[in-house]
Amino acid sequence: MSREWFEPYNPTSPFASLYEEEFKLPLERTLEEVASIEKIIQSMDNKPRVLDLAGGFGRIGSLLVQGGLVGSLIDLDLNRRLLKVAQKSGINNAIEGDMRYLGFTADTFDLVLLMFTSFGYFVTPEDDLKVLQEAKRVLHLGGTLLLDLPNYDRILQNFSPERDLLLLDNSKIVYRKELVGDLLIETRTRIFSDMNQAQMPPIRLRIYNQKSAGDACLRAGFSAVHAFDQNLQTYEPTSSNRLWLVCTV
């Protein structure tokens, strides 16, 4: 059976050995996001049972657990190596799995998190819809899905086709972006200090704006969808850094 392009054990996956270095976020951003999630939690009657979809090494989940903000938390991710890191950070329930096919019974969770642009990598929009439908299924009545997306309106308005990233070994990754239909495709070339080059697997991400993502959540069965920025302030398509959709069952 062939592996999908994004799977960590596919030797051509972009989410393999360089993941932590290539996709590392500043601590300030993580703390800002956790503070906003805490506000969502404070609006709930009890400490929630949380499912952190594509939670990886526990960037968000570990801080929620360490802060005593949750009743329980499960980190679900495809990457076994990152889940081992999550366990070392205090997340006892770190489970390898596919978020299109959750192995939980209905009404299991109060809050589902889908953070850090973890939505939109599947080949078809139907697979994306499966993720949302599964999130809705495992939430109890009144439960919440927090869907964290880039603000593509702002990105496309200020579109830059090329960027680069210097790695710790002094090699550099050069990224080149192009829009193909509703996909943002980013090709990646690694340039080493001796100027040798290696092509890296591209990243393909489906573009969702406030309307298309909100419509998908409603099709998945959520009763209400509200848009905010990452500080839970009013979402502004031209200026907000992130698009947060708070979806209620």
TrEMBL record:
<dbReference type="InterPro" id="IPR029063">
    <property type="entry name" value="SAM-dependent_MTases_sf"/>
</dbReference>
<feature type="domain" description="Methyltransferase type 11">
    <location>
        <begin position="51"/>
        <end position="146"/>
    </location>
</feature>
<protein>
    <recommendedName>
        <fullName>Methyltransferase type 11 domain-containing protein</fullName>
    </recommendedName>
</protein>
<dbReference type="InterPro" id="IPR013216">
    <property type="entry name" value="Methyltransf_11"/>
</dbReference>
<dbReference type="GO" id="GO:0008757">
    <property type="term" value="F:S-adenosylmethionine-dependent methyltransferase activity"/>
</dbReference>
<dbReference type="Pfam" id="PF08241">
    <property type="entry name" value="Methyltransf_11"/>
</dbReference>
